[in-house]
Amino acid sequence: AFTAGGILFGYLLVAAQPFLGEGSAVVNVSSLAGRHGGGPGASVYATAKGALMTYTRSMAKELGPQGIRANAVCPGLIGTSFHDIFSKPEGRAAVALPRSRPPRPIP
Q1: Which of 1, 28, 85, 97 is most exposed by smallest CB count within 10 Å?
Q2: Catalytic residues, which ones?
């Protein structure tokens, strides 16, 4: 079965490959939810991030022989409105790190 997301990922890799020379790196942003399945209310998010992790591993296998690295960073729980709604306070307290500064918009 084909999915729109899978087809899009394939097109992105084909489109980007001519610009990726030896020594290049692809860095995807996934999530620990992709590895552990997320919590209540996060099944679609966790599924998408899990797919991205698998895609990243596949990219590493395909691009590695050309000297191109592919990796994913997987942040843990981040204080967002999603977690305000769906995460229990005791779970957040067990894993969340305090902020070092207030959030700022990305320009």
Answers
A1: 1
A2: 45
